[in-house]
Amino acid sequence: MEVGIIGTGNMGTILAEAMLNANAVSPSSMTVTNRTKAKATLLKNTFSELKIETNAIEVAKQSELIFICVKPHDVYDILNQIKSVMTKNHCVVSITSPISVMNLESQLACSVARIIPSITNRAFSGVSLFSFGNQCTEEWKKKLWSLFEKISVPVEIDENITRVSSDIVSCGPAFFSYLIQRFITAAIQETNINQETATKLASEMIIGFGELLKKGYYTLPTLQEKVCVKGGITGEGIKVLETELGDVFEHVFQATHRKFKEDLAHIAQQYSN
């Protein structure tokens, strides 16, 4: 299967590297393009058989499956550039949450899907969020599912939980990376531990934490119960978290949903023309 990637910024590159390193797609079967050619060249430096084209149309001509990995406001222009070379045998996938499958189907007469990846897919783990268009064939659904099973756990979601699902799966690693960094900084400020040691300990703790959940030894609630002995030190720390966290995560979801609504309003204007 010939795969094209339009846009090799952060997520486009992560998606390409994950598929290539997992041997889900061969380098000779992948064609990429990016507005800044240097970013595409970085991929070719690692995967020499990968092909680089100068624009989206040339990528679409050479590909059966096309991933659009640009900013939401730029997707409309890309769709207009490639739709003249799309046939019913093609499949186009957008990886950004504000672009719905209905937006894609309003411009293209081929199979379409929205697949929201996560940076965790780079390690062949974590979830990828699926939404299929009404005209997406069963054959393409199976191909896409099989492809992403090699780098993630595919999960099909309803349209009405797109943003919160993306917050958890796609934004979550950044949110919790920030929290862990704050955790490390506080340890350094309040004790004699140094940056290198604190970072090593926290990183290995998170890796071990994930393994416990992955292997099914504990759920999130039972893990806390096992560590938090009544009257112990962990319990004192939990009391502080309960008091001081307040509604911080509610505010996080409120903020992401406000931005999402702004993006949807702008995109609605584009696709109503």
From TrEMBL:
Positions of the Pyrroline-5-carboxylate reductase dimerisation domain: 162-262
Q: EC number(s) in its UniProt entry?
A: 1.5.1.2
Q: Which GO terms describe its molecular function?
A: pyrroline-5-carboxylate reductase activity
Protein residues bound to NADP(+):
6-11
The protein depicted here goes by the name Pyrroline-5-carboxylate reductase
Q: What class of enzyme is it?
A: oxidoreductase
What is the annotated localization of this protein?
Answer: Cytoplasm
The record's listing under InterPro entries reads: 6-PGluconate_DH-like_C_sf, NAD(P)-bd_dom_sf, P5C_Rdtase_cat_N, P5CR-like_CS, P5CR_dimer, Pyrroline-COOH_reductase
Entry function: Catalyzes the reduction of 1-pyrroline-5-carboxylate (PCA) to L-proline.
This chain's source organism reads Pseudoneobacillus rhizosphaerae
Q: Which domain of life is it from?
A: Bacteria
Metabolic or biological pathway, per its Swiss-Prot or TrEMBL entry: Amino-acid biosynthesis; L-proline biosynthesis; L-proline from L-glutamate 5-semialdehyde: step 1/1
